[in-house]
């Protein structure tokens, strides 16, 4: 395996883990959301690295589609956050727990 | 990988990690957003190193351009400037659990890479380099997108449309609910 | 002949139109669709009849069988949507569609002000389609479809005014009582298939025309099971209780379904399967005796009833008894002959009674009528013709068919009980006397006695022409219907007998030469004389009691209080059922409800709910409502999954 690909994959794993950590420890929904974006980007990085490694264009196309899905997700996610904020005048993620069992 | 690539890659990778760390650590969401921006731009550079210029461009345009602007706009719209960000962090237990999960994810990924032969680097074969060069051209990407991956591509466009409609419906608010928008606007001032 | 199923199709189309869109269509169109579809059905039957008579290929009174669609094909069970065209089915189809058409036209006037106008016509069309399916089917299973279909439409139409509790209850009663019979009928069908491996009438007949490997006991069992079905459908004792209650339905329904057509389905079925019934002389005797008993039993009840429609209902039961009497003695074509004439005069009587009810604004109690001949002369004449026909006044339809039955009874000498014929003749002739009496009692009470209502209040009036025209047409049938089968005594051709002969030939019918033997002719003449005398005696008695000495009946009631009460309460059969079946059934059901339903079934359900609830309680703390906890579950799940996969695959 090429070294640049190997490094990219390690970087991708590190970024993904940091995204996970961020989602876990932050309470601000927007920040959590951005951490999710970070995880998606890490995955994209892995895709592109693999595309380079295999010499196939598919990985890039996956990354492209992930990007589009991320855009859609951002639109809906932000809309949800806006709606919640309007409703509660506050955006602490731990206060939005009315589905508690 | 030649030395030049490595010399370029390592600093950019460090920048990306700094961006991620800042995103997780910053108290102010605006700072978080700016750190994420840094991360995204570094990733765009890495895409270039990986011979994917089109992906790099799209990363900057779509992510750094469109999506981040949306984020920052929403943050500015809703987060009161003098608001004390007490709510930014969690209970110690959540820290512990989050760290545990993050570490195990990283462990799993690295172990998988190790199993997959990551650490026995080989020099690129001439053919491989040629293939890698060919995938760097946007026309190859476009051809793939409009032939073999046509259906996912079209479905993605439908998904975007649906997401757009969903966002519009959700943010429109109920009739008679206009007061809250005014309230929030006042408070944002 | 391959178009006879169109006779079924047209009313079905009418049903669809009126049933689906009737509420949004103008009333005139609804009525037109209802009547015209049945008229087309009649035209199809008539055309088929004419073509059949003129057919060269079929030979004299042959059969034509075809199917439009395959239906069930499992192993050696093959059932098609098949139809059989032969004299019997053609005659039935003609009668059914003609009477149905007339009743439809009558209903235009009778139901004119009813809210459920389109619903009524939709149901009636359904009935016609199902009845024609019943008579045209070429196999037992399709016949059963029609059988159940007419039962369904009967239920719907009895309970047509479902807001009246009595009507809804009567519909339910008819349905449940019929179920009893249908259950036995189904067993009969199953037995037939099990042993004879066939459902088609022609194939069954071919199989049974020669010697079979089964003894008479099997055929006795099959025949009796099938006959129990007929008992339910044709309201014979002891399953007759639903028919009088069925009078809660609109009167055209009573005329069409509960007098002229549906209730005769049992007779038709027995005649259609005559080749099977004749294998068991025991079963035939049972049929004959039960028919005879029902005839006199129902006639005696009819003597004292006061509801104008109930008298006719019991009269119907009694006349159906006559038909079974004839069929049981092997005179199948005479049973069909009586069925044919009865369809005319009984629907005429019912429709005239409907006119009376219409004319006096819903009153059905004959004690509150009287003298209506002056207000509604046309109805009066029609009712009188019907009454004369059913009583057996000479030269009207009922006279010929009833005398044919009595003569057949007198002549019959069944192997098992040779004297049965004579006994049944006596029963029959006594029934004839009772019939004449109660019919003319009704004529006098309704039309000729002094009025017993406030004239200014009730203002009786003649009904509209749309109701009178069908009456007159049915009157023509009631007068001339009998001429299709004149007795040998008259030395004129008997048209119907030979026509049905081939289909129903397996009976003990005498050949033509035998019929014309001098001694038989003499005997026939004598018997005819006896019955005419008795009928006139019945009429005379009614005249004496209800005209000459009006009011004497009150004294008679007091004199014979006990038998009077017995008859008025219909021999307490309903009460008997209540005590023997309904109340124990209710008690049993209550016990089952208490123990099985609430104890076992509910217990099981509650147990399941409890277990689910307990698990839910157990897992509840996991649902913290915090998004990040859920994210953590997802993340650790993914990690765990990867590790597990590694471990499993090594």
What's this, in brief?
Chain B is an all-alpha fold.
Which quaternary structure do these chains form?
A: heterotrimer
Radius of gyration of chain C: 29 Å
Low-pLDDT residue intervals, each spanning 5 or more residues of chain C: none
pLDDT averaged over residues of chain B: 79
Fold and architecture overview:
The complex is a heterotrimer of chains A (101), B (189) and C (650). Chain A is an all-alpha fold. Chain A is built from 3 helices and no strands. Helix content of chain A is 79%, strand content 0%. The longest helix of chain A is centred in the last third of the chain and has 31 residues, at 58-88. Chain A has helices at residues 3-25, 29-54, 58-88. Chain A has one domain (2-99): Helix Hairpins (Orthogonal Bundle). Chain B is globular. Residues 178-189 of chain B have low confidence and may be disordered. In chain B, helix 1 runs antiparallel to helix 2 and helix 2 (29-49) packs antiparallel against helix 3 (53-78). With 189 residues, chain B is mainly alpha-helical. Chain B has a domain at 1-80: Four Helix Bundle (Hemerythrin (Met), subunit A). Chain B has helices at 3-25, 29-49, 53-78, 92-115, 126-135, 138-146, 150-171, 178-188. Chain C is mostly helical and 650 residues long. Chain C has helices at residues 6-21, 27-54, 87-110, 117-136, 140-158, 165-196, 201-209, 216-233, 242-245, 251-260, 265-272, 274-277, 281-302, 308-328, 332-359, 377-391, 397-411, 420-448, 455-458, 465-480, 496-501, 512-515, 518-548, 552-559, 561-568, 573-619, 627-649; strands at residues 64-74, 77-85. The radius of gyration of chain C is 29 Å and the shape is globular. The N and C termini of chain C lie far apart (78 Å). The interface between A and B is large, with 74 and 96 residues.
């Amino acid at each position: 395996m090429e070294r640049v690909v190997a490094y990219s994959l390690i970087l991708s794993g590190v970024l993904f883990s940091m995204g996970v950590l961020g989602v876990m420890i932050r309470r601000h929904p927007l920040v959590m959301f951005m951490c999710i974006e970070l995880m998606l980007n890490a995955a994209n990085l892995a895709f592109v690295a693999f595309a380079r490694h295999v010499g196939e264009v598919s990985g890039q196309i996956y990354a492209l589609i992930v990007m589009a899905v991320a855009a859609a997700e951002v639109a809906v996610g932000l809309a949800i956050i806006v709606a919640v904020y309007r409703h509660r005048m506050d955006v602490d993620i731990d206060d939005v727990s009315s589905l508690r069992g | 990988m030649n030395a030049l690539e490595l010399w370029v890659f390592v600093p950019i990778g460090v920048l990306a990690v700094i961006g991620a760390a800042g995103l997780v650590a910053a108290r102010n969401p605006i700072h978080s957003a700016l750190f994420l921006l840094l991360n995204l731009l570094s990733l765009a550079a890495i895409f270039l190193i990986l011979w994917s210029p089109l992906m790099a461009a799209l990363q900057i345009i779509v992510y750094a351009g469109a999506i981040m602007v949306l984020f920052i706009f929403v943050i500015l719209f809703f987060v009161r400037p003098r608001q004390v960000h007490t709510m930014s962090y969690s209970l110690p237990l959540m820290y512990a659990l989050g760290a545990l999960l993050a570490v195990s994810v990283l462990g799993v990924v690295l172990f998988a890479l190790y199993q997959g032969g990551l650490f026995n680097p080989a020099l690129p074969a001439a053919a491989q380099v040629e293939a890698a060069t060919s995938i760097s051209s946007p026309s190859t990407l476009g051809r793939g997108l409009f032939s073999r991956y046509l259906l996912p591509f079209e479905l993605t466009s439908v998904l975007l449309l649906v997401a757009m409609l969903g966002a519009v419906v959700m943010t429109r608010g109920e009739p008679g609910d206009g007061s809250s928008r005014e309230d929030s606007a006042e408070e944002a001032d | 002949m391959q178009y006879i199923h169109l006779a079924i199709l047209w009313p079905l189309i009418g049903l669809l139109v009126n049933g689906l869109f009737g509420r949004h269509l103008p009333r005139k169109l609804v009525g037109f669709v209802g009547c015209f579809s049945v008229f087309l059905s009649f035209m199809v039957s008539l055309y088929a009849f004419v073509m059949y008579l003129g057919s060269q290929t079929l030979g004299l009174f042959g059969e034509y069988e075809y199917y439009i669609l395959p239906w069930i094909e499992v192993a050696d069970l093959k059932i098609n949507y098949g139809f059989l065209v032969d004299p019997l089915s053609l005659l039935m189809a003609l009668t059914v569609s003609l009477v149905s058409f007339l009743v439809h036209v009558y209903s235009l006037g009778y139901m004119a002000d009813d809210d459920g106008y389109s619903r009524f016509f939709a149901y009636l069309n359904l009935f016609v389609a199902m009845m024609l399916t019943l008579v045209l089917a070429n196999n037992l299973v399709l016949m059963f479809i029609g059988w159940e279909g007419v039962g369904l439409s009967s239920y719907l139409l009895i309970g047509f005014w479902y807001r009246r509790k009595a009507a809804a209850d009567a519909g339910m009663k008819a349905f449940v009582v019929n179920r009893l019979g249908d259950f036995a009928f189904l067993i009969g069908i199953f037995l037939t298939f099990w042993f004879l491996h066939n459902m088609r009438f022609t194939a069954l007949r071919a199989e049974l025309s020669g010697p079979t490997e089964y003894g008479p006991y099997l055929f006795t069992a099959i025949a009796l099971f099938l006959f129990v079905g007929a008992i339910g459908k044709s309201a014979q004792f002891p399953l007759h209780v639903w028919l009088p209650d069925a009078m809660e339905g609109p009167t055209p329904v009573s005329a069409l379904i509960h007098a002229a057509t549906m209730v005769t389905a049992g007779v038709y079925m027995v005649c259609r399967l005559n080749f099977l019934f004749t294998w068991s002389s025991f079963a035939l005797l049972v049929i004959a005796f039960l028919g005879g008993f029902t005839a006199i039993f129902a006639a005696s009840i009819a003597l004292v009833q006061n509801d104008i429609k109930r008298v006719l209902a019991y009269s119907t039961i009694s006349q159906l008894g006559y038909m079974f009497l004839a069929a049981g003695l092997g005179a199948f074509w005479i049973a069909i002959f009586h069925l044919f004439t009865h369809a005319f005069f009984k629907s005429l009587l019912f429709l005239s009674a409907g006119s009376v009810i219409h004319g006096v604004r819903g009153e059905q109690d004959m004690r509150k009528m009287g003298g209506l001949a002056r207000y509604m002369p046309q109805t009066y004449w029609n009712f009188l013709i019907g009454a004369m026909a059913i009583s057996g006044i000479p030269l009207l339809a009922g006279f010929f068919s009833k005398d044919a039955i009595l003569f057949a009874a007198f002549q019959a000498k069944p192997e098992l009980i040779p004297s049965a014929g004579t006994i049944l003749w006596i029963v029959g002739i006594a029934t004839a006397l009772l019939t004449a009496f109660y019919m003319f009692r009704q004529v006098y009470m309704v039309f000729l006695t002094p009025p017993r209502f406030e004239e200014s209040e009730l203002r009786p009036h003649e009904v509209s022409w749309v109701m009178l025209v069908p009456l007159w047409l049915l009157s023509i049938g009631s007068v001339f219907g009998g001429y299709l089968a004149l007795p040998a005594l008259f030395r004129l051709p008997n048209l119907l007998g030979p026509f049905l002969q081939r289909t129903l030939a397996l009976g003990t019918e005498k050949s033509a030469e035998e019929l014309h033997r001098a001694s038989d002719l003499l005997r026939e003449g004598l018997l005819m004389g006896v019955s005419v005398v008795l009928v006139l005696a019945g009429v005379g008695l009614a005249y004496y009691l209800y005209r000459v000495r009006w009011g004497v009946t009150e004294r008679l009631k007091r004199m014979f209080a006990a038998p009077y009460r017995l008859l008025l309460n219909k021999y307490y059969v309903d009460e008997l059922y209540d005590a023997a079946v309904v109340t124990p059934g209710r008690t049993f059901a209550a016990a089952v409800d208490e123990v099985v339903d609430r104890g076992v079934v509910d217990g099981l359900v509650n147990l399941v709910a409890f277990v689910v609830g307990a698990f839910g309680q157990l897992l509840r703390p996991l649902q913290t409502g915090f998004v990040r906890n859920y994210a953590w579950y997802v993340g650790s799940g993914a990690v765990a999954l990867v590790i597990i996969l590694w471990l499993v695959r090594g």
